[in-house]
Design goal:
The complex is a heterodimer of chains A (479) and B (103). Chain A is α+β, with helices and mostly antiparallel strands. Chain A has 15 helices and 11 strands. Chain A folds into 3 domains: 162 residues, no CATH class; 40 residues; 216 residues, no CATH class. In chain A, a hairpin with a 4-residue loop joins β3 and β4. With 103 residues, chain B is mainly alpha-helical. Chain B folds into 2 domains: 31 residues; 68 residues. Chain B has 3 helices and no strands. In chain B, α2 runs antiparallel to α3. Classes of the chains: A alpha+beta (479), B mainly alpha (103). The structure holds iron/sulfur cluster (2 copies). One iron/sulfur cluster (SF4) binds next to α12 and α13 of chain A.
């Protein structure tokens, strides 16, 4: 039976603790200081089952809105088809078309003149964020292989939806690999990736792609899903590796709650993000393949090669900043020349040798407890070639899908998975990266300090003031 | 981004407390006509930085929903602070007693 670090039920509950803190520490002034610095748990103390809407202190609620309304004579507005975005709702639909013709002309001119904020890359980003989700554009959600294929909105044949360099009458985006990488990282942050790395596809790294993917001497890749055939062009290609974060904030609640919101939402965000990235790359005039969570290859492998983290005992990627709290590294293949990011060494894999916390806490016994990494693999669901810890995915899945609540214990208990409010974490990471002799003491202290304890099942976010919940559940340390 | 957030008031408060503390120590030493020796300075500066780290860890750990880490940081960092403070105090006191005895 796997060991659990579940809280002792007789111990003081988290909320009681907060109350005591409020009384005891208030006397020494820390309470006031803590509150002034944004003390969320005091908010918890004040929670009520039906929390009032929290308004800024200078705002008051009134019975009538500050705009006068004549409900007697109020007309019902028919709906969006009556807005001026619909040519039919204009007295003279040609007026609408004229305005859009001018819009098209000025948009084209701005792109051709490379006007800052209105240039090709700006348009590509706008299109990516606007149409990357695929809906209402008439296209299906982007096909995972060929990338998003956004067409003009068929409902109203919206004529401003130009999105390739040819449409603007310019050549494709040109930049040095370094400039391109910087541009992608900026766009990635805006579109929803918390971090990004780039791997050049060569004879080695091509082995991280799925086996169904082959290369041919074609100008553009293509897919024949019915034959399970996915072809990339034989040319210089790069893997854009995007870190899709999940909510650590949500993980203070039960596994089930965490899964319900944090983990699952990260997958949907990943797919929307992948769509956006494909639209962005295509908008720059380059090819994009993949872009959903499953279409390309090994996310941990690419993540390691891109220097987004190190390989960990539980078989997952561990980032120096986000720990294991990464839902996925989304892989998109492109021919946009990029400056590669190198792998990193922050002492993380070395730390796993002594830590073993995920293995001890795994309820299914799926995680290897061997001290040293080893050459393994060989099962259908394991690939050989890595000297690491091979987790028994069958045990994990059987546990997770076999009636038990969804599980992410290996992620939540990992000493690298922490909020980053306390400065001390950086000092600990400095030690892990430079003085591995202290690793075993650090692991012990992690337990003593209560990190990674199983959450109290009675605590849920439902009673909190909604305005205290980070948007999308993403706390600042994940973003 | 706000240039100055509400946290500003907290930083100013801490700044005033630290500045006040430093002036107080300087006055006490001046009144006692005492000068601190090098290792006392080092210990005092270490005390100061450990205290800053401890306060930050204490408050930030509650922000991180880790109450046990918060309280234990007081123990694990507070004890060295106390030890260093006692060493400095005793060292100064010993010299002061000597000076007093001679005068
Ligand atoms: S998800 Fe749960 S069962 Fe699966 S390896 Fe991680 S801790 Fe073990
Ligand atoms: S819990 Fe420990 S052993 Fe497991 S992945 Fe994290 S650091 Fe490595």
């Amino acid at each position: 039976m796997a060991k659990s670090n579940k809280k002792d039920p007789s111990s003081v509950g988290r909320r009681d603790f907060m109350k005591k803190l409020g009384l005891g520490v208030g006397a020494v002034g820390f309470g006031a200081a803590a509150y002034a610095s944004g003390f969320k748990n005091l908010d918890k103390m004040m929670e009520t089952p039906l929390a009032e809407r929290k308004l800024p202190f200078w705002v008051k609620e009134v019975d009538e809105p500050t705009v006068e309304i004549d409900w007697e004579n109020m007309e019902i507005f028919h709906g969006p088809e009556n807005t001026l975005f619909n040519p039919a709702s204009w007295e003279n639909p040609q007026d609408y078309m004229d305005i859009y013709d001018r819009n098209i002309a000025s948009t084209k001119k701005n792109v051709q003149d490379n006007v800052p904020g209105l240039s090709l890359k700006d348009r590509a980003l706008a299109d990516a964020n606007c149409w990357g989700w695929g809906g209402r554009s008439g296209a299906d959600l982007a096909s995972p292989w060929a990338g998003a294929d956004v067409k003009a909105n068929p409902m109203w044949e919206h004529p401003t939806m130009f999105y390739t360099p040819e449409d603007y009458g310019v050549s494709k985006h040109e930049g040095t690999p370094e400039e391109n990488s910087k541009m992608l990282r900026t766009a990635g942050r805006i579109m929803g990736a918390s971090d990004m790395g780039f791997v050049k596809l060569d004879e080695k790294t091509k082995k991280l792609l799925w086996g169904k993917i082959t290369f041919e001497d074609v100008e553009k890749g293509y897919a024949e899903p019915e034959k399970n055939k996915y072809v990339l062009p034989n040319k210089e290609l790069w893997a854009v590796c995007s870190v899709i974060p999940q909510s650590l904030w949500m993980q203070q609640y039960s596994e089930r709650m965490s899964w319900a919101s944090s983990n699952t939402m990260s997958y949907s965000r990943a797919n929307i993000y992948g769509n956006r990235l494909s639209v962005f790359l295509r908008g720059l005039g380059y090819q994009a393949y993949g872009g959903d969570t499953e279409s390309m290859g090994r996310s941990v492998g690419f993540g390691v090669m891109a220097g987004l983290g190190e390989y960990g005992r539980a078989g997952i990627l561990i980032s120096p900043k986000y720990g294991t709290d990464i839902r996925t590294v989304l892989i998109t293949i492109t021919d946009l020349p990029l400056a590669v990011t190198k792998p990193i060494d922050a002492g993380i894999t070395k730390f796993c040798e002594t830590c073993k916390k995920c293995g001890e806490m795994c309820p299914s016994g799926a995680i290897s407890m061997e001290e040293k990494p080893f050459w393994g693999g060989g099962e259908a669901y394991q690939a050989k070639g890595i000297k690491g810890w091979y987790m028994d995915a069958k045990k994990c899945y059987s546990f997770m899908l076999g009636g038990e609540p969804d599980c992410s214990r290996c992620q939540t208990v990992c000493p690298f998975t922490k909020f980053d409010d306390a400065v001390i974490h950086d000092l600990i990471k400095l030690s892990i990266g430079s003085a591995p002799l202290l690793n075993s003491a650090i692991r012990k202290m992690d337990d003593i300090f209560g990190y990674g304890e199983e959450p109290d099942l009675n605590e849920t976010p439902w009673d909190l003031d909604p305005m205290d919940i980070p948007l999308y559940g993403l706390d600042k340390s994940r973003s | 981004m706000k240039l100055i957030t509400w946290n500003w008031f907290w930083y100013v408060l801490v700044g005033f407390l630290m500045g006040g503390g430093a002036v107080m120590i300087w006055h006490i030493l001046k009144n006692m006509k005492l000068k601190m020796v090098w290792f006392e300075w080092i210990l005092l500066i270490l005390c100061f930085f450990t205290f800053m780290l401890m306060s930050q860890t204490f408050i930030a750990s509650f922000q991180e929903y880790e109450p046990r880490a918060a309280w234990l940081s007081l123990v694990f960092m507070g004890i060295p602070i106390l030890l260093m403070a006692v060493v400095v105090y005793r060292s100064i006191n010993k010299r002061y007693s000597k000076i007093k005895a001679l005068s």
